[in-house]
Design brief:
alpha/beta; two-stranded parallel sheet
Amino acid sequence: MSLNNVLITGSSNGLGYYLSLYFSKKGHNILLHGRDEIKLKQIKEKIIKNGVKAKYIVADLENDEDIKYLCKFAEKENTSVLINNAGILCPNIPFSEFTNEIIDSMLKVNLIAPIKILNLLSKNLKQVININSMVGLEAKKNRTLYAASKWGLKGFSDSLKQEVIEYNILDVYPTNIKTYSEKENAMEIDFVANEIYQAMLDCKRNLILDGRKK
């Protein structure tokens, strides 16, 4: 199957940034997404040096019209691989400190947006990769809202896998990833990117990456 054109949400920094570089080195054209146009332009130039095509789109995943715009753009580019990577990180605060605004933002970006994007692009896809979290498998203190978004994504994806669909879905559950050099007790980014890529090629449905010390 053709896996040439890849949309990676949240690719202006963090894991999405490294995945865009890794996939481009493997010969895939990359459609970048984020909210920082300056960063997206910089990443685009790096990707082009790998001998593939790269385009970017600026969109806010809390906004329905932006999501539709992103998906129309991706559809025109014949996107066959979707990596749902964008997300709001866990704030690690008690539930009592959440505001309605924070609740809305996290659920929209971490859960609702991936579902809507997949729904709009599904007819053209061959592979979907959902970047979840170990928190999507384990309940922990001060992770209430983040866990709700990640467990929701897991439930959605696990249920969708039971339907007859034309694309494979890979759900990735990592612990901390070393997305910057000073980060401690985290998995090396090259290891994570390689594991995700190989799992995609093998059409795996789940990938647990537990880098915690035993």
